[in-house]
Design brief:
- There is one protein chain.
- With 521 residues, the protein is mainly alpha-helical.
- It has a four-stranded mixed sheet with strand order 3-4-6-5.
- The longest helix has 30 residues.
Length: 521
């Protein structure tokens, strides 16, 4: 009994160091998960475009590629590629998709050796956002609440999956979260934190245009914090300056030619660089297209307003879902937590509502802000004494569910929906199969020497680079397709009559990374 009492006394005296060790441990396991994922996965569909554009930024200082996204996220990716020996033909003049293929597969570069340094800056940024989650939640509650929030964040399969890729979703959402946290701090020290909040908001806007939906919310939070409209104007001015700085960092002369055929849009009044405004027009053009979706086994054209909430229900650990919901309620009903509700719940609600109106039902990455903000909300439960044990149990349940899916975080789904091996039955695209397992497919096919390989692959990788010699089964009569048929699960989800018939006449014998199914015909 004395030993137990002594141990408890020691823990109380060294509480700060104990909390620090837990923070380090949580971030360390997250880093291991993300780096392992980054090393093992081949380039996903969007990454070659961003990596190729980053190389052009470094070598040619040109803004001509990927105008639909502002440059800051790609400049962050470029900080890793600056240390890689990248070769790019100065005479290359293809489109951005061809650029990505050219840089990774046609210029003598090793795509694996390029993608890891491209992904590492995003990994580091994702870990830093974890510290923001911890700090935000600690200030709302206490350090134990910060640990709850950080645990939910660091074990989030979606954050790990997309935080390990050279893409823009996690950086953009993390900058919005950082701005909201700084606005919370600005209540007591506006002169110190409002400019920093403006910098974070500007970084979000300079990374991804979907964060424009957060601007009125965050400016409203400025007014609520300081009771002065001029402070909101100051934050907006700083944010606009950051956007301009991002473009000037690529090309100080801001050379730009408007792409032909852009749709008309009332954006010329915005005090933003011309390439940003044209990028908005590109995005509006994307929204005018008809995209295909897949939800709960049904392939459809267009979009469904409830797609993102449904996808989050599938792809979020059950423990985290329970804590998110209970934490949001706690922020609204517990008096001492209620002042934080606008900073945590309002940005989440507005960004989710804006994302739900989009026409691209392509993945929960469009709502990647939810695991960040709602992890902070969940920390509010620590303020309720009777809830502390259930909170601990649910956090452990979340951690076990996340660890169980290692290293296949992209196709994760929770136990209620059958786990990662069943995700492709309910969702597609970046929820499960984003082209990430081409290298793993090459390794798996070594188990089938001498077999004729037929491949339907959805991704940006080049099969021959990984040693896969395969034919297209859709280009020959069905009776000639004999041997092994490897099909990306997203292609199965959207299969036309011909591919459906081929699959119906085949027997599934293997799977790769929960994203590719191998059949025998």
């Amino acid at each position: 009994m004395r030993k137990v009492t002594g141990l408890l006394d020691w823990l109380r005296r060294h509480r700060r160091w104990c909390f620090a060790l837990v923070v380090v441990a949580l971030l360390a396991q997250m880093a291991v998960a993300m780096i392992t994922t980054a090393v093992e996965q081949t380039p996903t569909i969007d990454e070659p475009v961003y990596a190729g554009t980053a190389v052009v930024y470094l070598e040619q200082h040109s803004l001509r590629y990927n105008p639909e996204h502002p440059p800051l996220g790609k400049l962050i990716i470029a900080t890793g590629l600056a240390f890689a020996d990248v070769r790019l033909d100065p005479a290359f003049d293809g489109d951005q998709t061809q650029l990505g293929r050219h840089v990774l597969y046609e210029s003598g570069n090793d795509p694996g050796q390029l993608m890891l340094p491209a992904r590492l800056p995003v990994i580091v940024l994702t870990l830093l956002f974890g510290l923001v989650v911890f700090a935000f939640a600690t200030e709302l509650t206490r350090p134990s609440g910060g640990l709850v929030a950080l645990a939910l964040y660091s074990f989030s399969p979606d954050v790990i999956a997309h935080g390990s890729l050279a893409t823009l979703d996690v950086p953009a959402a993390g900058f919005v979260l950082t701005s909201a946290w700084l606005l919370w701090r600005a209540r007591h020290s506006p002169a110190r934190y409002l400019p920093l909040a403006g910098l974070a908001l500007g970084a979000a806007l300079a990374t991804k245009m979907s964060t424009l939906a957060a601007v009125p919310v965050l400016l409203l939070l400025v007014v609520l914090s300081t009771r002065r409209i001029r402070d909101a104007a100051g934050v907006a001015l700083v944010a606009v300056a950051v956007v301009w700085a991002a473009y000037l960092a690529v090309d100080p002369l801001l050379r730009w030619e408007t792409p032909p055929g852009l749709p008309a849009a009332l954006v010329d009044w915005l005090p933003l660089p011309e390439p940003y405004r044209d990028g908005m027009r590109v995005q509006f053009g994307f929204e005018d297209q008809v995209w295909g979706g897949f939800l709960f086994g049904t392939h459809y054209q267009g979009s469904r307003w409830y797609y993102l909430p449904a996808a989050l229900l599938v792809k979020t650990p059950l423990g985290a879902l329970a804590l998110w919901l209970a934490g949001a309620v706690a922020l609204l009903v517990v008096p001492r937590l209620r002042p934080a509700a606008p900073c945590v719940l309002l940005p989440t609600a507005v960004l989710l509502a804006a994302a739900m109106t989009g026409d691209r039902d392509l993945g929960v990455r469009y709502a990647i802000f939810a695991p960040m903000f709602l992890a902070v909300a969940a920390a509010g439960l620590v303020a309720l004494r009777r809830a502390q044990l259930p909170v601990l149990v649910l956090v452990v349940f979340t951690a076990v569910s996340s660890l169980w899916t290692f290293p296949y975080y992209l196709p994760y789904s929770n136990e209620a929906f059958g786990g990662p091996s069943k995700t492709h039955l309910r969702l597609h695209d970046s929820n499960v199969d984003w082209g990430q397992d081409l290298g793993r497919l090459a390794e798996r096919l070594e188990r089938y020497p001498g077999e004729r390989i037929w491949l339907v692959y959805k991704g940006s990788g080049v099969p021959s680079h990984y040693g896969i010699t395969a034919a297209d089964p859709l280009g020959v009569p069905a009776d000639q397709v004999r041997g092994l048929l490897a099909v990306s699960n997203s292609s199965i989800a959207k299969a036309d009559a011909r591919l459906t018939a081929l699959i119906a006449g085949s027997t599934p014998i293997d799977e790769v990374g929960h994203s590719i199914t191998i059949f025998r015909r």
